[in-house]
């Protein structure tokens, strides 16, 4: 046993920094997932269904206003600075982006102060909650910039510590506030706990970012960042609308209780989304490097392995939706299981289009990205407006899935076209494998919606799927080994270069 442990530790020490970083990012994701699974059951039980619905709507609007108030510079401009800029230009560009972010959030704060009543009526949230939201948004850029920089530099231990500690403190403070200070207005208590944690960590991480930097307004970098992100603003905002319009419209058309039921299914999907996001964040710098060096063959092998992993994870959550819902929420939320298949499979298609869009972001093809996102958001709103009054909140899950499929297909062809324009004919996914896995997941959606009331038959299907994976284990193992070898080769090449 000791020899095996020693062998594992030796293997870990010899791993390239990218592999170590990926492992730590996955570990942090697992920990965050665990915290999420623990906190959702807690908050669904200590909060009234209506209060939980209001809190869910708050989170949705917070994401939308964050994009408006920050422009999401960390997603593209800041990554480009870290990748393409050097020396004094890099420091000046970093400082300029930080300055611009806080100027924009200050403007948003002023708008909320002046027009708070009107905004409150428009979004359906109390004015005091909106002011808390604005304070939270004010500190988001510091946290996001610090996280991106440390991820890019593979400083995984400090990033994992900050992410996990922030989640734990947030949860503990939320329970404390709801149970002791805000028993009658639980949504307010939960929001205040989030704002306090965001402010404390934001101030601390901002000090780390600005240490040693000389700040001065650079019109050049402000113009460059705005030129890059203005087309992305409608894109990113549309994605947030696509992800959150369903909750807002359910709350408006049906009520906060139904919003809470719908939100629980998304709370479970957060697990897959966290893993998906951690994968995307971990591979983004690596993909930028591959694109810079024209190594798309390396990307394809790695991404095929990740495709299999994400699809398998999605299928597991779809298959065991009834059991998962029973864990994370009381029996009053049980009917939310029928939202689970489309919501979970939507996460798979977001993984697809997110990886495709990295290519478009690298080559700054932001206008085409914007058009697709706006079209998907508009389609989602129209379908929700037509179907929610007739079929209830479950219809929103299917309309969202349709829109994410549209985005995945669009970005697949767009990314392929962009690569061809830059004389790269090798895609980042195997086309036939991608189509086959997508079809299997869509068929499983129909199958498991039927099987949820037939537990024994559902377990039998799961056993058959596992048996198939065991029989094909050599293929999956070879695929994962290929991923590892390609990353190691790329690391050695970059080190020698």
Textual characterization of the structure:
This protein has 497 residues and is mainly alpha-helical. It folds into 2 domains: 14-230, no CATH class; 246-497, no CATH class. It contains 19 helices and no strands. Helix 2 (17-46) runs parallel beside helix 7 (156-180) and helix 10 packs antiparallel against helix 11. The longest helix has 37 residues, at 87-123. The protein is globular and about 65 Å long. Mean pLDDT is 75; it is low at 489-497.
Structural class: mainly alpha
Helix content: over 70%
The value of Rg in angstroms is 23 Å
Largest sheet: none
What's the tally of helices?
A: 19
Q: How would you describe the oligomerization state of the chains in this entry? A: single chain
Order of helices and strands: HHHHHHHHHHHHHHHHHHH
Which parts are unreliable, with pLDDT below 50 for 5 consecutive residues or more? 489-497
Which features does this protein show?
single chain; 497 residues; mainly alpha; 2 domains; 19 helices; disordered C terminus
Structure summary:
With 497 residues, this protein is mostly helical.
Describe the secondary structure blueprint for this structure.
Layout: H1 2-13, H2 17-46, H3 49-70, H4 77-84, H5 87-123, H6 127-152, H7 156-180, H8 186-210, H9 219-229, H10 232-253, H11 256-292, H12 296-319, H13 321-328, H14 340-362, H15 366-391, H16 394-421, H17 431-451, H18 455-471, H19 473-496
Helix pairs in contact: 2-7, 2-11, 3-5, 3-6, 3-8, 3-10, 3-11, 4-5, 5-6, 5-9, 6-8, 7-8, 10-11, 10-15, 10-16, 11-12, 11-14, 12-14, 12-17, 12-19, 14-16, 14-17, 15-16
